[in-house]
Amino acid sequence: MSHLLDVENLWVKFPTRNGVFDAVRGISFSLGRERLGIVGESGSGKSMTGRAVLQLIRKPGRVEADRMEMNGTDLLGASDKAMRKIRGRHISMIMQDPKYSLNPVMTVGQQIIEALRTHEKVSQAEARKRALEMLDAVAIRDPERVMGLYPHEVSGGMGQRIMIAMMLIPNPEILIADEPTSALDVSVQLQVLEIMDKLVKDRGMGLIFISHDLNLVSKFCDRVVIMYAGRIVEVCEASKLHEAKHPYTQGLLNSVPDLVHPRPRLEVLTRDPAWREAPSVSALL
User: Fold this and answer.
1) How many domains does the chain have?
2) Which of 40, 144, 190, 213 could form a disulfide with 227 if both were Cys (CB 3.0 to 4.6 A apart)?
3) CA-CA distance, 244 to 37, in Å (whole number)?
């Protein structure tokens, strides 16, 4: 499998009054043309990992790594100008909530067209045509009408699909989806996932899917990385997630309600201090 992304010994550090806080601590992983899930509790370093790849960690935060490459391009040493060309064109990231990612004073059409013309030299007419096709690809009915709407005029589910369209229109090689369905109801979640799955498979992309939902990840992804306290504690095939060996992963699974095999009482996750200091497991292919 050809690697789209290789990350070795990644650290994300923030200086505080009490010393340096390590949000991500020496993790290594690679991404092929696959769906890689990253799961864990809030604060485990999932989103920071995705942001670090795109150099979106704000100062005074620091990103350090032995190697962070996309198809041979050094992301760690890339200048701000070089990263602006990489973001969107080669790697796109869908944020958690479209309300905070879409520009409230620009129409949906203006924003999607801008996302395309920033990276490709195409005419306004061609950009509009491709924007309409992309909205249709993410199952939005009447894309002509939606092109003229403002973000506050669309529902949460439609807003998330608009975000997916905007991130995919430059035809990136890698898509990072950070809790893309967390703000959606269950029926819309499945619809959005089906759209993402089809687009990723049709385009031969690599997907990093960040989520809290272990059951969702086990059904949607190919591999799963489980993070705890900034480190990777376990890596497994998504289809075998429920056979995980690490007590942290088992604890997460046991704390999720199971409608097929109901239990009188859900388990409370107990944490072993030794997990925090254990070396990170490699998720390199």
Assistant:
1) 1
2) 40
3) 14
Task: Provide CB contacts within 8 A for 93, sequence distance 6+.
Answer: 50, 51, 54, 56, 87, 167, 175, 176, 177, 178
Please state the length of the chain.
Answer: 285
Burial class (CB in 10 A: 0-12, 13-18, 19+), 123: exposed
For the chain, helix, strand, coil in percent to 5 are 40, 25, 40
Give per-residue pLDDT as tens, 144-154: 999 999 999 99
Handedness of CA 10, 92, 219, 257 (dihedral sign): positive
Over the stretch 233-258, which tens digit does the pLDDT of each residue have? 999 999 999 899 999 999 998 888 87
pTM equals 0.91
**Angular region, 187: left φ>0, alpha ψ -120 to 50, beta rest:** alpha
The CA R_g of the chain, rounded to the nearest whole Å, is 19
CB neighbours (10 Å) of residue 159? Answer: 21
Single-letter amino acid, residue 284: L
Q: Is the pLDDT of residue 264 over 60?
A: yes
Q: Residue 207's closest CA among 225, 231, 190?
A: 225
Cα–Cα distance for residue pair 178/197, rounded to 1 Å:
15
Contact 159, 181 (CB under 8 A): no
The residue range of the domain holding 80 is 1-90+222-285
Q: What is the pLDDT of residue 108?
A: 95
Structural domain includes residue 69: yes
| Phi (first) and psi of residue 22, to 5 degrees | -95, 105
**Per-residue pLDDT at 1:** 53
* CATH number for 242: 3.40.50.300
Q: What is the three-class DSSP state of 103?
A: coil
